[in-house]
Each structure stands twice: as structure tokens, then as C-alpha cells.
């Protein structure tokens, strides 16, 4: 077997029929086999070593040694070698997975007596055993459905212990997450073993990695829970031990999980890393997806309970105006009064407002929001309804219609009903500050809508224009990532209709396209210079390089690889990393190379080979939009998933520039428009008799002392 330190992968044998692992960190060799022989580059050092099959046999025997030291060393080697798919296949063929599970199930009892006198050794042994198990299972060779209840109970017991080694806890949480995500039967068994009470202490700790894995388990259980268990009402009462994490709507409110995450994770005195941000985003999406059922439920006009909600809206708004005793009034008079009130409430169908809620989305969710607003913000609700009912017909802001359209718009903004993206980290802290965050979000926005309607002096014909302005106000406020709902409300106060007009005017001026012939000729003249400038910027960014995350459909992991262009723009250097780098990664630490001259094409989206493979990633629209591949040689490719849209544009532009092709990304078009506009405006400035210095003005000297103050009065 040959071992290739220069390529930064785990060892693999030429005689074995496995594949090439691409998940090992740099500095680790990988086994060379027939299938991956084309991966060898000129200058790669080959070293003769033991075959993976022999390695697997030796380790299989060594981990069963009676010597604790020998067993510990063998498990350490196994944890390292298990990252390679060829070795993993050989070890699994020896029934190695069963051996590891037996060691986990029985080993703890077997060495229970030794634990007191050899606790560090025991902890390391268990940690290496679980690490090897995680790495072997991550190759997808063995089905998760094959594991016993005893093994699940043992893994769960490590999580449930109050004091356990951090590495053991981390790997146990990772195993439970994978079990839940990959097997419906195991989900049921894990859900019986893990309770919210046992996970909360891990969230209250200071280790962000443990917190991340804990929230990942919560998300996995949440994602796989049956619909009936997810949709438990927030006001219902559930014993904390009955259903651990699946009745998430109840638990988030009743069991203070939300407030614990807010206090110990979001508002902790440390930066939130990308993986934690992703898990919080997933939890946010899954929580809002609980609204999907109501959003897609049409109102039944014959359902008296649903009709009573509309009656309650009318009662709260017009109770003071109702006559003391209406029983003597005729039925016709009562109908006439109800029709008048429903018109004041802003329903489209004044006679039977239930018909307004038959469109999905937003369905019954809109009515739920209206009732919440009427009950919990009663003064604001009454003020809006009465204020608009006293205006002229054409200037009134219809509360009912506005609430329905606003609910639909907020669902679109928050993507209610869509599965979470594999790459997105876009969570909003303010949604973790309230048990009924969506309803409160609606209450703030419906008041904003009414305020904007008045500022625009809108009529019924302007309804869609008002909704567009409100959407822009909400989106701009959300981009600032307010930490609380009050801060979000404050941001909206500063985004009045007048301010939106100023922003739009400013953006129009910045993007102004002068159409006169001399200006168009000037644009044609300077456009090649601007494109060359953009090209150089893209290539410089490729020289700096980017860290890409490795994704798979089995288990999201913190596995990274780095790619950068050589300063002479002739070679792409890339290699795997154990963790996300701080700053640039030197060329000499990236062992793999791809000459630019060997690149045949760059493909994106659905045309990428890794997007055509079977798996969950290809189903995700956001991942598709970030995927691109470099095709080289025959049937060889380098696959990428960009961390965000900006990096995707940078890399696809840069690679196309290297191949002599046009840069066609949205980022290039925006940069070209911005730079052209700036350059034209600079050239059109009236600079007659104004001398422009060649060098910037000197920085003034510091004052001799700072004992002074400027009085603004």
C-alpha cells in the first residue's frame, strides 16, 4: 500500500477495491488504489506501507487486547484511520461496527471498577471508540437501522449524565442526531430516551460546541417529529417527561427552552460561530413552519367556532357602541348592523366575512393574528378600526383586508413552509425574545401598515403600492438584525414613507443611466477599463482564497477545505482543513494542485456533478444556487458549494476570467453599473480652475494635549 503525504488524505491500498476519501485533514496520507491513481500529481511522494486490509485486521485484534494501554493506542489509531473510506470498508467487512457497539454497550460495565483508578484512560478509550464509530458511519456504508435499543440507551445515558467528558458528550450528541435524521424507527427510540430536562444543562454551559450539538439534536427531533406532535397548542399542558422535544410548540413556550437559548447562547458574552448560527437559523425556520398548517387551512363558513372568532373581533371593536339590549330587534336589523360593522372592520365580503379566509395562504393564520392583536393589543386594535371607520370610504385603510395580505407577506418573508437551507446562517435574535414572536411581529407590522397608509394618503386603489412600501420597510429593518422586537419597532420608526422615498431617490441617482449620445460614447470608452478592474479584483480574491464547507446528506459536520489561486494565476491550490481558518492559508499547506491549463469548463447549479448525485442536497434550491464545479481531464471534477451568494459570484467570475470568458454574474453587473456611474459623474464634475493634487493631503500632527472641549451651544 502506498501512502501519499503530499495529497493530505488518509492511507489507501492499491490492492483494495475501495474509493478515495476526501474528508481527511491536511498532513494525513490517503491510500492509493486503482480507482484514484489519476489523482497522483507530479512531485507527489509515495511511501510503501501496510495495506488497509492488513491495517484493519491488525486494529481489529489490537482493540480487543487485554492491555489497557495497547487498547487505548489501537482505538486512537482506529479513530484516525476511519476517516478513509477504503480502510472503513475493510474494517466494516470484519464486522468492526458490531465490535465497537459491543464495546460501548458492555465496556462501561466491564471497566466500571477501573474507572475510579483509571478515569482519564477510560474517558479517552470511550472517546476514541465513539469517534471511530462516528467516522465509520459517516461513510454511509452501514444502515443506521441495524442498532439495538441497548446501544441507543447507552449513548443516551452519556448525554443524560450531569458530569461527562466533553469529547464523549460531543460525539454522543452527534450520534443521536444522525440516528434521528437517518431512521424513523430510531427517532422513536431516541425520543423516548432524551428529554428536554436532560438537554437544558448542556445549553446552560459555556462550551459553544456542546451547545451547537445540543441544538442540532433538538432540530433533528423537531424535524422528524410527526405533525400531530409538532402542532401542540402553545397553551396546552404537557409533562416534560412525556414527549421530550417533539411537541416543540409547547416546549418552546412552557418549558423556557427559548429563554434559555436566548440567555445562554444568543446573549452570551461571546461571538456566535457559523455552525451555531446555522443551527439557530434551522430552529427558527422549524418553529415558524409550525404555522404552515394554519396557513394552509381554509376557513369553513359553516363552522360556528370559526365564525365566533369573527364575532369576537366585532365585539371587541364595537362593544361600546352596541345597544344594551338587542334581543328585541328584528333579524333584518341585526344583519344590517353586522354588515355595517364588518365593513368598518375592513372585510371584502361584508355579508359573510368568513369567505375572506378561504384563500390559502394565509388561510386561518390571518384570522389567528387578527384575534391575537385584538386581545393582546386591544387599545391599538380599537384605535385602528375606529380611526379608519371614521374616514371617507376611499381613504380608509381596510383592517381585515390589510391583515390578510400582511400575514401572507410575512409568511413569504420568513419562508414559512420551506425546509431550512443547508448553508444559511440567517437567524434573527428578536424572534427568540418572545413566546409568540410571529404574532408580535404581525402586531408591529399591522400598526406600521396603518401608519404608512396615512403617510401616503392612500386610497383603496393604492393598496398594492402601500403593501410594497411596507414590505420594503420590514425588509430593510430586518437586515439590521435587531436584537429585540422593541428595537425592530424603533428601526421601523426611522423608516417612514418619507425616508423610503429618500432612499429610493438616492438609489436611483446612484444607478442613474444617462442616455445622451455623448454619455453613451463615454460609457463605451471607459467600460473596458472598468471590466478589467473588476477582473483584477476577482482574481485577487481568488489568490486570497476561500474556505468552503463540506456538506453531506447524512450529517452536517465542521469539515472544511480551502482553495486559492497561485499569485501567477497558473495553479489552483486546495486541501482539507480540520477547522475553519483564521485568515489566509499558505500555499505550502495546501497539498493538492490543479493547473489552470487543465480546466476544461466551469458548470453551475443543476449541471454540477455533485448536484446530480442522489441525496438531499440536490433538493435544496439555495444549495443549487451556490453550487459550481470545475471540470478537468477526463471525468474529473472539483466540486464547490460557496458559503454565500457573494463568494459564488466571486469564484464563478474569477474562473471564467481565467478561461477567457465573460463574467456574467449579478455581482459583476452591479459592480459595473456602480463603477461606471461613479466614473462618469467624476468626469462630468465642473473642475475648471480647480487644481486636483496628485497626493493626498498630509495628516495633521496630534495636538500637544487633549485638554479642550468643543461647545456646541
From TrEMBL:
GO cellular component: cytoplasm; guanyl-nucleotide exchange factor complex; plasma membrane
Region span, Disordered: 1-21
One example GO MF annotation: SH3 domain binding
Alphabetized UniProt keyword annotations: Apoptosis, Cytoplasm, Membrane, Phagocytosis, Phosphoprotein, SH3-binding
Family matches, as Pfam families: ELMO_ARM, ELMO_CED12, PH_12
Main location: cytoplasm
Segments traversing the membrane: none
Residue ranges constituting the ELMO domain according to the UniProt record: 305-478
Record protein name field: Engulfment and cell motility protein 1 isoform X3
Species for this entry: Physeter macrocephalus
Lineage: Eukaryota, Metazoa, Chordata, Craniata, Vertebrata
Gene field: ELMO1
Amino acid at each position: 500500500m502506498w501512502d501519499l503525504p503530499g495529497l493530505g488524505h488518509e492511507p489507501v491500498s492499491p490492492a483494495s477495491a475501495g474509493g478515495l476519501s476526501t474528508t481527511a485533514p491536511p498532513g494525513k496520507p490517503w491510500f492509493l488504489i486503482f480507482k484514484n491513481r489519476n489523482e497522483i500529481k507530479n512531485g507527489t511522494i509515495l511511501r510503501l506501507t501496510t495495506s488497509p486490509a492488513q491495517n484493519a485486521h491488525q486494529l481489529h485484534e489490537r482493540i480487543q487486547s487485554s492491555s489497557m494501554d495497547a487498547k487505548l493506542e489501537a482505538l486512537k489509531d482506529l479513530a484516525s484511520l476511519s476517516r478513509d473510506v477504503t480502510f472503513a470498508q475493510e474494517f466494516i467487512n470484519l464486522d468492526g461496527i458490531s465490535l465497537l457497539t459491543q464495546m460501548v454497550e458492555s465496556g462501561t460495565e466491564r471497566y466500571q471498577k477501573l474507572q475510579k483508578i483509571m478515569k482519564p484512560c477510560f474517558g479517552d478509550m470511550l472517546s476514541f471508540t465513539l469517534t471511530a464509530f462516528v467516522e465509520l458511519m459517516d461513510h454511509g456504508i452501514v444502515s443506521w437501522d441495524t442498532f439495538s435499543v441497548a446501544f441507543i440507551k447507552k449513548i443516551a445515558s452519556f448525554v443524560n449524565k450531569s458530569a461527562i467528558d466533553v469529547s464523549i458528550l460531543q460525539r454522543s450528541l452527534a450520534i443521536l442526531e444522525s440516528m434521528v435524521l437517518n431512521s424513523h424507527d430510531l427517532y422513536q427510540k431516541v425520543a423516548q430516551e432524551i428529554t428536554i430536562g436532560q438537554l437544558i444543562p448542556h445549553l446552560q454551559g459555556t462550551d459553544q460546541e456542546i451547545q451547537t450539538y445540543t441544538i442540532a439534536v433538538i432540530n433533528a427531533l423537531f424535524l422528524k417529529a410527526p405533525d400531530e406532535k409538532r402542532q401542540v397548542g402553545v397553551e396546552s399542558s404537557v409533562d416534560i417527561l412525556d414527549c421530550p422535544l417533539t411537541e416543540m410548540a409547547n416546549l418552546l413556550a412552557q418549558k423556557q427552552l427559548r429563554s434559555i437559548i436566548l440567555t445562554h447562547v444568543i446573549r452570551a458574552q461571546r461571538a456566535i460561530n457559523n455552525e451555531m448560527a446555522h443551527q439557530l437559523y434551522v430552529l427558527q425556520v422549524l418553529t415558524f413552519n409550525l404555522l404552515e398548517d394554519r396557513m394552509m387551512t381554509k376557513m369553513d363558513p359553516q363552522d360556528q367556532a370559526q365564525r365566533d372568532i369573527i364575532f369576537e373581533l366585532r365585539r371587541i371593536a364595537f362593544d361600546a357602541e352596541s345597544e344594551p339590549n338587542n334581543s328585541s330587534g328584528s333579524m333584518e336589523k341585526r344583519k344590517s348592523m353586522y354588515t355595517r360593522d364588518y365593513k368598518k372592520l375592513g372585510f371584502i365580503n361584508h355579508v359573510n366575512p368568513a369567505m375572506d379566509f378561504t384563500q390559502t395562504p394565509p388561510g386561518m393564520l390571518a384570522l389567528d393574528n387578527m384575534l391575537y392583536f385584538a386581545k393582546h393589543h386591544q387599545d391599538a386594535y380599537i384605535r385602528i378600526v375606529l380611526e379608519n371607520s371614521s374616514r371617507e370610504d376611499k381613504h380608509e385603510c381596510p383592517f381585515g383586508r390589510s391583515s390578510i395580505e400582511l400575514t401572507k407577506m410575512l409568511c413569504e418573508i420568513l419562508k414559512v413552509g420551506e425546509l431550512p437551507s443547508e448553508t444559511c446562517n440567517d437567524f434573527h435574535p428578536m424572534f427568540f425574545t418572545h413566546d409568540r414572536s410571529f404574532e408580535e411581529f404581525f402586531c408591529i407590522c399591522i400598526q406600521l401598515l396603518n401608519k404608512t397608509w396615512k403617510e401616503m394618503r392612500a386610497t383603496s386603489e393604492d393598496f398594492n403600492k402601500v403593501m410594497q412600501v411596507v414590505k420594503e420597510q420590514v425588509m430593510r429593518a430586518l437586515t439590521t438584525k435587531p436584537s429585540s422586537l422593541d428595537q425592530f419597532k424603533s428601526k421601523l420608526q426611522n423608516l417612514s414613507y418619507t425616508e423610503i422615498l429618500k432612499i429610493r431617490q438616492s438609489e436611483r441617482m446612484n444607478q442613474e443611466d444617462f442616455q445622451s449620445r455623448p454619455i453613451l460614447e463615454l460609457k463605451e470608452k471607459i467600460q473596458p477599463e472598468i471590466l478589467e478592474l473588476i477582473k483584477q479584483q476577482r482574481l485577487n480574491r481568488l489568490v486570497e482564497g476561500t474556505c468552503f464547507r463540506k456538506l453531506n446528506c447524512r450529517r452536517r459536520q465542521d469539515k472544511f477545505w480551502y482553495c486559492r489561486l497561485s499569485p501567477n494565476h497558473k495553479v489552483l491550490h486546495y486541501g482539507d482543513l480540520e477547522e475553519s481558518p483564521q485568515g489566509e492559508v499558505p500555499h505550502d499547506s495546501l497539498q493538492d494542485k490543479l493547473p489552470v491549463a487543465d480546466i476544461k469548463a466551469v458548470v453551475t447549479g443543476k449541471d454540477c456533478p455533485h448536484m446530480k448525485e442522489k441525496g438531499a442536497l440536490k433538493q435544496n434550491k439555495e444549495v443549487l444556487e451556490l453550487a459550481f464545479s470545475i471540470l478537468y481531464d477526463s471525468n474529473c471534477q472539483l466540486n464547490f458549494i460557496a458559503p454565500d451568494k457573494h463568494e459564488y459570484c466571486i469564484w464563478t467570475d474569477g474562473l471564467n476570467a481565467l478561461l477567457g470568458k465573460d463574467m456574467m454574474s449579478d455581482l459583476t453587473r452591479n459592480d459595473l453599473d456602480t463603477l461606471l456611474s461613479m466614473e462618469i459623474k467624476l468626469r462630468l464634475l465642473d473642475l475648471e480652475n480647480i487644481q486636483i493634487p496628485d497626493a493626498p493631503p498630509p495628516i495633521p500632527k496630534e495636538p500637544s494635549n487633549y485638554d479642550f472641549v468643543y461647545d456646541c451651544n
